[in-house]
Amino acid sequence: MMQKQQTNDTGGEDALVGNVNKLMVSPPGYSGAPRKGHLVFDACFESGNLGRVDYISEFEFDLFIRPDTCNPRFRVWFNFTVENVRETQRVIFNVVNFSKTKSLYRDGMSPVVKSTSRPKWQRLPAKNVYYYRCPDHRRNYVMSFAFCFDQEDDVYQFAYCYPYTYSRLQHYLASLERRNLPYLQREQLGLSVQQRRLDLLTITNSEREKKLVFLSARVHPGESPASFICQGVIDFLVSQHPVAQILRDHVIFKIVPMLNPDGVYLGNYRCSLMGFDLNRHWQDPSPWAHPTLHAVKQLIVQMNQDPRVSLEFYIDVHAHSTMLNGFMYGNVFEDEERVQRQAVFPRLLCQNAPDFSFSNTSFNRDVVKAGTGRRFLGGLLDDTSYCYTLEVSFYSYMTAGSTAPVPYTEETYTKLGRNVARTFLDYYKLNNLIKDNRPIHIQRRRRAWVSGIRQTDIRTDRHRLRMNKTQSTVAGGSFTLHCL
Question: What positions constitute the catalytic site (predicted)?
Fold first, then answer.
């Protein structure tokens, strides 16, 4: 049933609690039958988000993001459809209530769009997108984009970034199960508050004593690129690629592809159904308020207490709204040798993935990050373990020698995931867990190169680490690794 627009003079942005549902937006005072060009907006679908539409003129509309459920602080993700368009109808959409001021929209990012006749997502031309402070909206930052509808019978869909829904994940995991791969196990680790599955994948040829790598993604539901990366990791590890076969022989991979399924389903950006940023509750998750996080933490603690398990890596995958490329965050340790060892994996990944930035990779001890998976597990696990946050830009990446950023696509996000998986082979060859069959001179060159990292990249920042030692203990200081 179509809903007609009603004026909303009371209540601010915080009052938006639901998505628009087939909302027809017509000129003020119009009471006749809907006409072509009276746009119909909808966000009542999985991962949808649009809380309100204001008619400015027949060419211009103000759009309000619905805040995360039970938490009005976060308004970033949007995902909505428009129909009943007129061919060649030109419009300007103003997204007026972003909760963040810093944004990649300042650097050329643009929303993505698809339609029923063109189902592949594509980015709008950057020249049609404007990001600015607007005096009409309390000097908040507004993102405006111009668009011309060209097919009257199409339904158009616009989103902040490429959506990756809970249902898409379930279909993907079900298709993997149907392949009956002997080295893949899928299990339900728990249920969310709204009773959605928390899936755990185990990928290995046998679970004898091996090194263990644990990956998680989508603790922040609006960070959809994390799901494409995670799928890239999984696709590679279950493939028949020789590197994947070697890794399955020597390493156990455990992957939680979606830590916050309710938030993803509801179209939240940062929070769970109950308004919690789950990545700030690792220290003491509640089994009823944060059941998915509680289940994952329990599993990791159990594995850490099992002498047969050597949990060497924990990587939590995210997307970043202000920086380019892929990069990592790691922890600060007093033991300088451990700091040096922690730099090796991101440096190897930099060699395998042209979109990964070693210069953006940093190690910190910020107080506000104390409840994150990286920080909590970095303190829980022993000094042979490495805990990272893997970040990737919502927008684009720069490669060596490039003069302009290259926008990410679903495929290039997935490719970064494959390159993450491949890097584990390089790491374990370097540490002699896996036999390196390359010529001796190449092996020596690689070891000398890594030794150079440890002696040069880290040492150049030691004076900063010493200067900030007191500050980093109390107030959080950080230091960054720089490319040579």
Answer: 391
pLDDT at 139: 83
Residues annotated catalytic, as ranges = 391
Structural domains present in the chain:
10-159 (2.60.40.3120), 166-446 (3.40.630.10)
> How many other C-beta atoms lie within 10 A of the C-beta of residue 323?
17
pLDDT of residue 472: 34
Q: For residue 232, what is the enclosing H or E element?
A: helix 225-237
Using one digit for the tens of pLDDT, what is the confidence trace for 6-51?
Answer: 444 434 555 677 999 999 999 999 988 889 999 999 999 999 999 9
Q: 0.70 exceeded by the pTM?
A: yes
Helix (H) or strand (E) holding 386: strand 386-393
Q: Residue 329 belongs to what H/E stretch?
A: strand 326-331
Token pair, residue 392, equals 């990737």
- Count of CB atoms situated within 10 Å of the CB of 382: 9
CA distance 120 to 452: 44
Q: In the structure, what pLDDT confidence band is assigned to residue 206 with cuts at 50, 70 and 90?
A: confident
CB contact at 8 A, 278 and 292:
yes
DSSP 133-169: EEGGGTTEEEEEEEEE---TTPPEEEESS----HHHH
pLDDT digits 0-9 by tens, 442-484:
555 555 555 555 444 543 333 333 333 333 333 333 333 333 2
Question: Which residues, including other chains, have CB under 8 Å from residue 220's CB and lie 6 or more apart?
Answer: 226, 260, 263, 269, 270, 277, 279, 318, 319
The interaxial angle of helices 225-237 and 166-178, nearest 10 deg, is: 10
Residue with tokens 């185990």: 202
The residue with tokens 């992957």 is 255
Helix ranges restricted to H, 308-452: 336-342, 344-352, 373-380, 410-430, 440-452
For residue 45, give the DSSP letter. Answer: S
pLDDT of residue 394: 98
The amino acid at residue 53 is: V
- The span from the CA of 62 to the CA of 13, in Å, is 12
Dihedral of CA atoms 46, 276, 133, 64 in degrees, nearest 10, equals 30
Could you tell me which residues are beta bridge partners of residue 311? 212
